[in-house]
Specification:
Layout lengths: L3 E7 L6 E10 L4 H13 L4 E12 L1 H13 L6 E5 L3 H10 L6 E3 L2 H13 L10 E4 L17 E3 L12 E2 L10 E4 L6 E4 L3 E4 L6 E4 L4 E4 L8 E5 L3 H17 L4 H22 L8 E8 L2 E7 L14 H6 L2 E6 L5 E8 L2
Helix pairs in contact: 2-5, 3-5, 5-6
């Protein structure tokens, strides 16, 4: 039996819509087949995909990246990607990386079909995961959240306080329209606002003001927003982390070779922590703090395992050579702190 089977069905009554039933794993052996098959479907004029993920056990970083690219290539007004019945191991990676903003998520095929039918009938019945995100109330400032305490959880602090920037005019909605559609300046997500106030994009956390009368101003970030993750050593967590590193590196201007070096260093660091700090136990947890400032990406790993000091030799020699900065120190309360950073060349 093939490692991945792909069954495509036309959806009656919904032109340009395909139901894609997947069975197996999207990994290094199958991802090319997966990409080629869906590209051929899209070339036939399909702009909306309902992907039944019930039998998908695993999606690697390349598969995730392709799904994001496919989502970006089909605009919300034409269609989009609806995911149905995500398995827990797949869903946790989507949740961890904040990828739900790219897709509509449904529990059943019927829910996905009803949503598309309602959209064709006039836009009613939008899903909370719709790519057009309706922001109905201003965002109130929130205190910084506490450090994560469970695996596979992203903690991101709130955006910095609003600062005055030039107001960018946005097309005024037609008379009687309930919402104003705004394209996020950072990630290009389509947002819909109604009331005057300060909002933030749920995909990338970029903040903006809506002053009424079609006037929108995006607020600059004075410093990068760090991302904190608490993970175990399960393969899907490592794959998700590598995909996230790839996206941050790309945004920071890294070349393909620089991205590859960064991913290799991260993969090696995680594996060395697992083997030397935790004795190979995959169920233990480590924490990682990622910060992207201008063209530099810094990652700080922390664990609670055995000390990895110099009496064991330089186990990080390969990582050290590929990074612009490397530091290994023993945490006063036990465990290790490994810091790596690299600038885009």
């Amino acid at each position: 039996m093939p490692d991945l089977t792909i069954q495509v069905q036309e959806v009656k009554g919904l032109p340009g819509t395909a139901l894609v039933i997947l069975n197996g794993s999207i990994d290094a052996k199958t991802v090319i087949t997966f990409q080629t098959h869906l590209n051929s479907v899209k070339e036939r004029g399909v702009e909306r995909f309902i992907m039944d993920m019930e039998m998908v056990k695993y999606v690697n970083s390349t598969g995730l990246g392709y799904l994001i690219n496919l989502s970006d290539s089909v605009t919300p007004d034409k269609g989009g990607i609806s995911l149905v019945k995500d398995q827990p191991k797949v869903k946790v990676v989507f949740d961890m990386l904040g990828l739900n903003a790219f897709f509509r998520i449904f529990n059943t095929r019927d829910e996905a079909l009803k949503h598309l039918q309602a959209s064709d009938a006039g836009g009613a019945g939008a899903s909370p995961n719709d790519q057009t995100v309706v922001l109905k109330s201003p965002v109130a400032p929130q205190p910084p959240p506490p450090p994560p305490s469970t695996a596979r959880h992203i903690v991101q602090p709130p955006p910095p306080p609003p600062q005055s920037v030039p107001v960018a005019p946005v097309a005024q909605p037609a008379a009687g329209a309930e919402t104003l559609h705004v394209e996020c300046q950072s990630c290009r997500a389509l947002l819909a606002v109604k009331d005057v106030g300060t909002y933030k994009c749920p995909r990338c956390l970029t903040a903006f003001n809506y002053a009424g009368g079609g006037r929108v101003s995006f607020l600059p970030r004075q410093k990068a927003l760090p991302v904190q993750l608490s993970l175990n050593f399960a393969p899907e967590c490592t794959e998700g982390l590598l995909e996230f590193v790839k996206r941050l590196s790309t945004k920071s201007g890294f070349s393909p070779s620089g991205i590859s070096e960064m991913q290799s260093a991260v993969k090696d660091t995680v594996d060395l922590i697992r083997r030397h700090a935790y004795g190979g136990n995959e169920n233990n947890v480590y924490h990682v703090l990622l910060t992207s400032v201008d063209s530099e990406l810094e990652m700080r790993f922390a664990d609670y395992g055995a000390s990895m000091n110099s009496d064991k030799g330089d186990v990080f020699s390969t990582v050290r050579r590929s990074m612009d900065r490397f530091e290994l120190r023993h945490h006063p309360k036990g465990g290790n702190v490994v810091t790596v950073s690299k600038k885009a060349k």
